[in-house]
Amino acid sequence: xxxxxxxxxxxxxxxxxxxxxxxxxxxxxxxxxxxxxxxxxxxxxxxxxxxxxxxxxxxxxxxxxxxxxxxxxxxxxxxxxxxxxxxxxxxxxxxxxxxxxxxxxxxxxxxxxxxxxxxxxxxxxxxxxxxxxxxxxxxxxxxxxxxxxxxxxxxxxxxxxxxxxxxxxxxxxxxxxxxxxxxxxxxxxxxxxxxxxxxxxxxxxxxxxxxxxxxxxxxxxxxxxxxxxxxxxxxxxx
Length: 238
Ligand SMILES: C[S@@+](CC[C@H](N)C(=O)[O-])C[C@H]1O[C@@H](n2cnc3c(N)ncnc32)[C@H](O)[C@@H]1O
Hints:
Elements: H1 3-7, E1 12-14, E2 26-28, E3 47-51, H2 57-64, E4 68-73, H3 98-107, E5 112-115, H4 123-126, E6 129-135, H5 144-154, E7 155-164, E8 177-179, E9 190-192, H6 194-204, E10 208-219, E11 226-236
Parallel strand pairs: 1-2, 3-4, 3-6, 4-5, 6-7
Antiparallel strand pairs: 7-11, 8-9, 10-11
Helix pairs in contact: 5-6
This protein binds S-adenosylmethionine.
S-adenosylmethionine is lined by residues 28, 30, 51-52, 54, 57-58, 72-74, 80, 96, 117-119, 135-137, 140-141.
């Protein structure tokens, strides 16, 4: 079977160029936004943790810059934080991780994918990381703060965090989050304001936190196109 045929075997989250003209038909094409995250050009000799990798777009990008990368995710959708009425009752026919494995093989990557919730990721097991990278994961979590605390515990250097923020809440001067898990379509528990994200990252254990930037991510096509406002925060230990 050719690479192009194997790519058609299952659905993709990330649009990724696998070489020889094969591009995965992902829901999300992050390629136009790479420059928004402020990732160092080179990461040679650095250990990097990517939280919530899905098909691995960011993990492979971090590796391309020279890093040794560990990528966390879960395979069974039932283990994800879903509001009770929406939790899948059965194991999905398409467990997470298939796209990652195929892309890793084609790209001849050494990224290590560890099936572990960020809630249970510890330095005792995984070691510490010069850079922890996390994109669009926390808004889907019931306990955003525990996840941030874990990231601080795993970090010996920097955090790059890109998350959706609530524009309306960002207009008020105090730190608030909007509860959104009652909405039927997306799984978003809490949508913090920009200030709230920043304070949460600091409170979790990053000593210096700055807003690197903001951008609007567009996804979907035609009538189904939607836009998500992201804030990119950089956190530093010491
Ligand atoms: C919206 S996707 C973002 C994918 C990628 N980080 C990006 O920015 O393009 C969220 C990812 O987080 C993963 N995830 C959800 N809960 C998690 C948890 N508790 N621990 C680790 N990963 C989790 C999901 O399985 C999914 O791959």
